[in-house]
Backbone:
């Protein structure tokens, strides 16, 4: 079975997430205290918002993390009533570890209408004893003030170009592919800084790589033996 690289190499801990150091440091403090307010993560796609939410769950709940986080997409056409029902069922029981709350991760929350956001605000209030919401959005300005005021807001920055390139080279090396800096640069440009999109493009490029043994010392100081190489011409054929 072919693994999706975006999931295979998704960081499991906050300190493994690159390019958002200040935010990760502040989130680590919440995890250490096993207490946090509702959170709002704003910023462009592919910069670590979902990964940070899942890392919080991994660190708080350990092996039972999947039982203690509910992932919902606010742009789902089924609307706020489905969200309300899912939250009600999920929040009925407390977390199974020594953490006094479960987590509800609501992606694309800025896609909700004002009426739906008003309903979401009431849901957040009704279940504050047993749940914490993490809202993800591209633009926090599209979230109504009453919800914003109930959240600690974290603004994720676009990832630095070199950070994306270095991570791509590292992932490729772990999969035994030698990815040149120039080839990685082309993937970065095609992905427009979206790390998730960049990883998907990298995996697509791997399908046309040529068999060529080699080795690489990656930017993170690790040495890998490689069996394939990906050069700029092969990337250009994909992107």
Residues:
């Amino acid at each position: 079975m072919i693994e999706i690289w975006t999931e295979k190499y998704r960081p499991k801990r906050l300190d493994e997430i690159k390019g958002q150091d200040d935010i990760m440091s502040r989130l680590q403090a919440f995890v250490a205290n096993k207490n946090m307010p509702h959170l709002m993560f704003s910023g462009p796609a592919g910069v670590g918002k979902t990964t940070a939410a899942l890392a919080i769950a991994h660190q708080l709940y350990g092996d039972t993390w999947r039982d203690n986080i509910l992932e919902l997409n606010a742009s789902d056409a089924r609307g706020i009533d489905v969200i309300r029902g899912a939250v009600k069922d999920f929040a009925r029981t407390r977390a199974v570890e020594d953490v006094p709350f479960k987590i509800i991760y609501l992606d694309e929350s800025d896609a909700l209408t004002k009426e739906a956001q008003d309903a979401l605000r009431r849901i957040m209030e009704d279940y504050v004893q047993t749940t914490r919401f993490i809202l993800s959005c591209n633009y926090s300005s599209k979230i109504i003030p009453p919800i914003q005021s109930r959240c600690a807001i974290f603004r994720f920055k676009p990832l630095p170009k070199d950070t994306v390139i270095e991570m791509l080279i590292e992932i490729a090396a772990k999969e035994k592919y030698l990815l040149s800096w120039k080839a990685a640069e082309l993937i970065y440009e095609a992905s427009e800084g979206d790390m998730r999109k960049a990883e998907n493009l990298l995996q697509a490029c791997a399908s046309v790589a040529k068999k060529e043994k080699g080795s690489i010392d990656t930017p993170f100081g690790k040495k890998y033996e490689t069996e394939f190489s990906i050069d700029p011409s092969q990337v250009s054929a994909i992107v």
Notes: Strands lie at 38-42, 69-73, 102-107, 131-137, 151-155, 177-179, 210-217, 223-230.
